[in-house]
Amino acid sequence: MDIEIKNLNKKIDNFRILKDINLNFEGEGINVLIGPNGAGKTSLLRIIGLLDHPNSGEVVYDGKSSLGFNSREKLNYHRQIGFVFQNPIILEGTVYQNIIYGLKFRKLKIEQEKIKGIISTVGLLNKINNDAKKLSGGEKQRLQLARVLIIDPKLFLFDEPTNNLDPISVKNIEEIILELAKSKKTIILSTHNLIQARYFAGKIFFLKGGEVIQNGTRNELFKQPISLDLLEFSSWSLPELDLNRGST
Amino acid sequence: MEYLFEGIKQGLLLLFPPQKEIIGIVFLSIVVSGTATVLSGALAIPVGIFLAVKEFRFKRFLTAILNTSLAFPAVLIGLLVYIFLSRRGPLGAFELLFTPYAIIIAQAILATPIIATLVLSALKGIAKDVQDVSYSLGANKYQMALILIKEGKFAFLTSVITGFSRVIGETGMTLMVGGNIKGETRVMTTTIALETMKGNFEIGIAVGLVLLFVAIVINIILQIIQGK
């Protein structure tokens, strides 16, 4: 799905969270939003995910502007977007019941084999009947990823999906995201982990103070930073960069 | 002290086996307060959900009014209901004053802001998350509302039970609009008030023990719900 952001502004209590954002996201592959806390990454993702309204500007999905959406169109686009939240939001019920919510909302057939396959992919097969609210933080994050994978959306929005996770869970989620990228899904991911941003490659957007400071490929951004902000952010965030990781 | 113990003894004798009159009073109290709570819950829960979920211009103002109405004295509600239902009042033609319906109306008015405020404060913490996750998983507005109700069911139950415990213990207002007519509008609290003034402590104590039992049961249910 091609995503274009035009003159987007967002204010909360007279504080400008996003300032005149103009962006084009790659329709296939991974788009990474990087920047310090408070840069506006989550706000931008929420607006793209139709969970928040901008104060002005628009998001264009495959040539269709969000400005003209009626409630039916909004629902239709919601159903093409999968959102993985920074802090997993788990609903009441078992792991299985949580995973099938998206299918039930769409009144789609519940295929047990497919569900088990996805639960297995995220490593929760042995907890399929457990109370989902009692899972650990990492398990909850993997559960919400499974909940999104089962609905097979065109666009995946990941808001710092590996924050506070153990290295094994991080690796598991990163591998799933890379697999999605190979299957030509559109992925927009926010992180303040520059090692992860380089690992995912794709197109990188550096945000700070609600503005896009610079964007480009990882080589363009990290080898030729045009702004002092990015240089400063990189130098603080990449003290011991593993040069081999994600360099292929 | 002796007459207190004698009163308790006589009161217990009235309960075991329970006298027909006391059974009638307890039954009427539960039916009247239960009906009032159900009616106010039917109005208050949607109001609480609406205020928790919807963003609109006068939301803070309406929430402030709702919170302020918690401080509305019950006796004042009794007075207003009395005026409205009295013969010369706007609803006088219905002849509801000094009937159980008048008590139900007054108690429903008393319970509504209590239930709505409790629902609102309970849902405030979860409404945004439930909306986010439901919409992001492709729910329409009705499906989202169902998920919110499912997630907030214990909060609703707690609110309704709290509302019920408030109205079943109400005396002054119930006395004003019900008239405390024997066999018709005499409920537990008005019985205790009347019999105490008449010096019939044993009946007051007997009904008081039942009221205390109801309060304990309500509290146990609340503890169980909150423990979930």
Task: Indicate the low-confidence ranges of chain B by residue numbers.
Answer: none
Number of helices of chain B: 10
Shape of chain B: globular
The name of the CATH architecture of the domain at 1-80 and 156-161 and 186-238 in chain A is 3-Layer(aba) Sandwich
Query: By helix and strand content of chain B, what is the structural category?
Result: mainly alpha
Mean pLDDT of chain A: 88
Helix content of chain B: over 70%
Count of β-strands of chain A = 10
Chart the SSEs and their pairings.
The complex is a heterodimer of chains A (248) and B (228).
Chain A (H helix, E strand, L loop, with lengths): L2 E10 L2 E11 L3 E6 L6 H8 L7 E6 L2 E2 L5 H8 L2 E4 L10 H5 L1 H5 L6 H10 L15 H13 L5 E5 L7 H16 L3 E6 L2 H7 L2 E6 L2 E7 H6 L4 H10 L11
Parallel strand pairs in A: 3-8, 3-9, 6-7, 7-8
Antiparallel strand pairs in A: 1-2, 1-4, 4-5, 9-10
Chain B lengths: L1 H14 L4 H34 L5 H11 L4 H12 L14 H37 L4 H11 L1 H16 L3 H7 L9 H11 L2 H27 L1
What brief labels describe this structure?
heterodimer; A: 248 residues; alpha/beta; Rossmann fold; six-stranded mixed beta sheet; four-stranded antiparallel beta sheet; globular; B: 228 residues; mainly alpha; MetI-like fold; 10 helices
What does this structure look like?
- The complex is a heterodimer of chains A (248) and B (228).
- Chain A is 35% helix and 25% strand.
- Chain A is α/β, with parallel strands linked by helices.
- Chain A has a domain at 1-80 and 156-161 and 186-238: 3-Layer(aba) Sandwich (Rossmann fold), CATH 3.40.50.
- In chain A, strands 6-7-8-3-9-10 form a six-stranded mixed sheet, with helices on both faces.
- In chain A, strand 1 and strand 2 (15-25) form a beta hairpin.
- The model of chain A is unreliable at 240-244 (pLDDT under 50).
- With 228 residues, chain B is mainly alpha-helical.
- Chain B has a single domain, classed as MetI-like fold (Orthogonal Bundle).
- Helix content of chain B is 79%, strand content 0%.
- Chain B contains ten helices and no strands.
- Chain B has helices at residues 2-15, 20-53, 59-69, 74-85, 100-136, 141-151, 153-168, 172-178, 188-198, 201-227.
- In chain B, helix 5 (100-136) packs across helix 8.
- The radius of gyration of chain B is 21 Å and the shape is globular.
- The termini of chain B are far apart.
- The mean pLDDT of chain B is 91.
- The chains are: A alpha/beta (248), B mainly alpha (228).
- The A-B interface holds A 49-51, 71, 75, 78-79, 81-83, 85, 89, 91-92, 101-102, 105-106, 147-148, 151 and B 129-130, 132-141, 143, 147, 150-151.
